[in-house]
Write a structure and sequence with these properties.
Length: 379
């Protein structure tokens, strides 16, 4: 008797561009399943994108352009993009770009190696934008494949870059890490704690899951606004009455990733670090402190406390995410350069890209032409 014959029927590969919140909600389960298979960061989760889209200001100047690659009814690739209109130019960028520290596409690990290239080709052909700017790319980001001449239509490396600082090493405990710090660093930590303890009862703790988050988030927003005003900056994440921060933090909580560390003095929060834990890494998303206690460096004390807490629990890395702030650099044992890419579509986009290139070349030339400071002779 002949053995039964099994026919392998190939699935139909299709592409789609999501432009509405309704469709975004419909494909969320398939997207979540892909996110799990691909081991994506929270910044590529559909709930993160949906929370941002639901709460982002100036939505009339934005449009979703989320590319999907389907293999039958199985989602195999996502590149979550959106446009933002600036000075008449439609800029294609990461969806939730302003609140996402690392950008990348999601691709199923067992999918066609050309899936991301074909998906990008579809996004590009569908249009709806003039200039493309994809930034905050880790060295191992999958979208680097789009820079290959055979794959990356319209995309080229861009001169803009950022830095990400991390604490990582062979320590078996927080105390072991603490002892590797300089004598001055250890003294500053102890001095700061002692100074605060002279004013009241000082407590470091991780918020419990059933602790109310709203008062803490209100405190964070208030302290952040003070800091932003003092440094001449702005962020819609902390605007009074803005729902953005609460929406994003709810996503972290619902996914079981949220870790909020606080430093309290007589039950008053004087420093906060809103973190999340993924892939064996503690990631610091939002940090702030009360400037009234600046002399004691409560932010520094809290950071050193949660670093030790993380190492004591076997986490391999503490990632401060984007930003080259000095307080991050002082404690980091590793820095990671984040790159960017730019492209154009249509005459308007190519003119904008050319203007950006000319501006960069001009600034670089002026920098090289500036006379160097006279060298100070040896005594």
């Amino acid at each position: 008797m002949n053995a039964p014959v099994t026919l392998s029927i190939p699935r139909t590969r299709t592409f789609e561009i999501v432009t509405s919140a309704v469709r975004l909600a419909e494909i969320a389960p398939a997207w979540s399943a892909l996110w799990q298979r691909a081991g994506g960061l929270v910044f590529q989760h559909p709930d993160w994108i949906a929370a941002w889209w639901r709460t982002t200001p100036h939505q009339e100047r934005r449009a979703l352009r989320i590319g999907l690659a389907w293999n039958g009814d199985r989602l195999e690739g996502v590149i979550a993009l959106a446009t933002f209109r600036r000075s008449g130019i439609r800029m294609l960028e990461w969806a939730a770009k302003d609140h996402s520290d690392y950008g990348d596409a999601l691709v199923a690990p067992d999918s066609d190696p050309q899936a991301i290239s074909r998906l990008w080709q579809h996004v590009f052909d569908q249009g709806g934008f003039d200039l493309i700017y994809l930034n905050r790319l880790l060295p191992d980001a999958g979208v680097h494949a789009l820079l290959h001449p055979a794959h990356g239509k319209a995309l080229r490396p861009n001169h803009r870059g950022e830095i990400s600082y991390r604490v990582t090493g062979p320590w078996q405990s927080g105390a072991e890490w603490f002892e590797t710090l300089s004598k001055k660093g250890r003294q500053n930590y102890r001095r700061g704690r002692k100074f605060m303890e002279e004013s009241g009862a000082l407590r470091f703790r991780l918020l419990d899951a059933d602790d109310p988050r709203e008062p803490v988030l209100e405190r964070v927003a208030t302290l952040k606004r003070l800091w932003l005003v003092r440094h001449g900056r702005a962020s819609d994440l902390f605007d009074e009455g803005s729902p953005v921060l609460a929406a994003l933090i709810s996503v972290l909580a619902d996914l079981g990733l949220l870790r909020i560390f606080v430093l309290e003095l007589d039950d008053t929060i004087i420093a906060v670090s809103i973190n999340f834990e993924q892939h064996g890494t503690m990631m610091a998303f939002v940090t702030t402190y009360d400037p009234e206690h600046e002399r004691a460096s409560p932010g520094m004390v809290l950071m050193m406390d949660y670093i030790q807490w993380s190492l004591d629990r076997g986490l391999a890395t503490i990632d401060f995410l984007c930003g080259g702030e000095d307080f991050k650099r002082r404690f980091a044992t590793q820095s990671v350069a984040l790159s960017s890419m730019m492209g154009a579509r249509g005459l308007r986009g190519h003119l904008a890209a050319l203007a950006d290139h000319v501006d960069h070349v001009s600034k670089s030339w002026k920098t090289r032409r500036q006379p160097k400071a006279d060298a100070v002779p040896d005594e």
